[in-house]
Amino acid sequence: MQEGLYCREDRFAEEPIGELAEKYREILSLLGEDPGREGLLKTPERVAKAMAFLTQGYCCDPKEILLSARFKEEYKQMVIVKDIEVYSLCEHHMLPFYGKAHVAYIPNGYITGLSKIARVVEAFARRLQVQERMTVQIRDCIQDALSPMGVAVVIEASHMCMQMRGVQKQNSATTTSAFTGVFLSQTKTREEFIHLIGSNLR
C-alpha cells in the first residue's frame, strides 16, 4: 500500500480475499481450465490480492490528500505537475489503460505539496474507471480543495481493450482534457499550459 494515499491500513484484512479467490477459481473452471493443476493452485488468491491492490482508490479520500498539505502562499503563477504515470482498469472490460496525466493549477491563496497532486491522480486511477470521468474527477477535486484561479488536466492513455480485443488498433491513444477558471476563460493561459506539457491538444 502506498504511503500517503489515505487508504485504510486494514483494507486488505477487510477485503473478502477468500471469497474473491473462490469466484476466480470458478471463472478458471468456466474458461475450461483446471484450477487444481499445479500452475493454477494459487492463481485465484493472487488475482484476488492483485484486484484489491488495483482498486485501492475506493478507500482513499482524494480531497483529504490535498488538504493534508495545504499551505497559505501568495504565489499566483501556474503550477504544473506533468508526466504523472497512470495505470487504471477500464470499467467496461476490466482491462488496463495506461499513460500520463498532466495537471496544472493557478493558486489563489493556497498551494499544496507537489506529491499530493500525483497522489490524487493515483487515488482516482486505482478504481474501475473511464478516462473521461477520471479527468473530470481530478479537476474537480483540486478545484474544490484549493479554490484556485483555475485547474487544467490532460490525460493521454492507451487502452488495452482497443489493442488486445475488438478493433485491435495497436498504436491508438486517447487524450482527454478538463479545465476550470482562467484555463477556460483565457485562451492564452490554456495555450501556455498545453505548450508547457508538450501536448498536441489544441
Features of this protein?
single chain; 202 residues; alpha+beta; 5-stranded mixed beta sheet; two-stranded antiparallel ribbon; 9 helices; 7 strands
Task: Break the fold down into its secondary structure elements and pairings.
Blueprint: H1 11-14, H2 17-30, H3 43-54, H4 62-67, E1 70-72, E2 79-90, E3 96-106, E4 110-112, H5 114-125, E5 128-129, H6 131-146, E6 150-159, H7 160-163, E7 174-179, H8 182-185, H9 187-197
Parallel strand pairs: 2-5
Antiparallel strand pairs: 1-4, 2-3, 3-6, 6-7
Helix pairs in contact: 2-3, 5-6
Descriptive account of the structure:
The chain is of the alpha+beta class and 202 residues long. The chain contains 9 helices and 7 strands. The chain has helices at residues 11-14, 17-30, 43-54, 62-67, 114-125, 131-146, 160-163, 182-185, 187-197, and strands at residues 70-72, 79-90, 96-106, 110-112, 128-129, 150-159, 174-179. It has a 5-stranded mixed β-sheet with strand order 5-2-3-6-7, with helices on both faces. Helix 2 packs across helix 3 and helix 5 (114-125) runs antiparallel to helix 6. The longest helix has 16 residues, at 131-146. The two termini are 37 Å apart.
